[in-house]
Amino acid sequence: MKKLILALLFISSLSLSAQVSTPGTGVNWDLDSLVANFPSAFSLDTGIYYQTDDLIVAKNDSLILDNSLVWKLDSGVRVTVEARATFRSEGNLLLGIQMDISAFDSTKTFDGFRFEDSSKVYINNTFFSYGGGLRVLTGDFEMINSEVSYSHSKGTSTSGALGFSRGKPRVIGSTFRYNAQPAMGAGANSTVSATIKYNLIQFNNLNNANRPQINLGPTHPNDTTRIIGNSIIGDTNLTKAGGISVSTLLSGFSVNAIIDSNVIADNRYGITMYGATYGLIRYNTIRDNDSEPNPLNGGSGI
């Protein structure tokens, strides 16, 4: 009761703005409680949740969504999570039973989600579309049986539809299609040892930038990036979009990677690896990765 009273006092003190924040008093928030406590930013109409202002889920609080639902975000709106976040829908994406998070209008995209380094994130059976991607600053991130598609490249995540910064993120059994940027990316000076397994990665990097669909940098010195059992299919009209790169050009960093049993087709190149301390590439099907026939125009790989 004390926590709820503090939360209500905090909310009553907020002035009208384009941003709302939870009070950080240890409350588990869901969309119904956000609608009840922040009516200027959240509403519910005929079973659809609408968000019109930015949201910050403060440290010590949690955002827990555990039902199938539809959540629409207005143009330019961002969600920032500083604590724990769980997106878990009982159902199946293939059957259309899922958590659906998208823009009000596909032509007016929202800014995206930002998960701070203090957050812990679990996402299952959730479909994100028409946003600015997911900026993953935390190393405690897991996505299973979900989808991120139709993302633009001017929102929260510019390195990829999923943009990693640290730790050991896990992405399993998910789909990434028609994103303006790579499906997954990390900075050149960010040590990330990702596990990427059994995903469909198709027609990403629509901006046709000089980047592959999976674009990762250095790994932790004593851990390994694992890219296993994925389908990475390109669009031959995107002559600068490669398949997989796990590389570093910076001194003092290492690359340890296993790239195993993937199908990689119709990209500018299949696989490239620079600065590798350890690399195991085996059992991959690599075909027709020649959308740019001249290797001098942006490099090449297997």
Structure, explained:
By secondary structure, this protein is mostly beta strands. The protein has one domain (2-287). It is built from 2 helices and 31 strands. It has helices at residues 2-12, 31-37; strands spanning 19-21, 28-29, 42-45, 48-51, 54-57, 62-65, 69-73, 78-81, 84-88, 99-103, 112-115, 120-124, 126-129, 134-136, 141-144, 147-149, 162-164, 170-172, 175-177, 184-186, 195-197, 200-202, 212-216, 225-228, 231-233, 242-246, 256-260, 263-265, 271-272, 278-282, 285-287. The chain is globular and about 55 Å long. Residues 8-17 have low confidence and may be disordered.
Helix fraction? under 10%
End-to-end separation in angstroms reads 61 Å
Number of helices: 2
Mean pLDDT over the full residue set? 91
Looking at the structure, what is the overall shape? globular
Low-confidence stretches: 8-17
Number of domains: 1
Radius of gyration over all CA atoms, rounded: 20 Å
Largest sheet geometry = 11 strands, mixed
Summarize the structure.
This protein is mainly beta. The protein is built from 2 helices and 31 strands. It has one domain.
What structural keywords apply?
11-stranded mixed beta sheet; globular; 6% helix; mainly beta
Topology at a glance:
Elements: H1 2-12, E1 19-21, E2 28-29, H2 31-37, E3 42-45, E4 48-51, E5 54-57, E6 62-65, E7 69-73, E8 78-81, E9 84-88, E10 99-103, E11 112-115, E12 120-124, E13 126-129, E14 134-136, E15 141-144, E16 147-149, E17 162-164, E18 170-172, E19 175-177, E20 184-186, E21 195-197, E22 200-202, E23 212-216, E24 225-228, E25 231-233, E26 242-246, E27 256-260, E28 263-265, E29 271-272, E30 278-282, E31 285-287
Parallel strand pairs: 1-5, 2-6, 4-7, 5-8, 6-9, 7-10, 8-11, 9-12, 10-13, 11-14, 12-15, 13-16, 14-17, 15-18, 16-19, 17-20, 18-21, 19-22, 20-23, 21-24, 22-25, 23-26, 24-27, 25-28, 26-29, 27-30, 28-31
Antiparallel strand pairs: 3-4
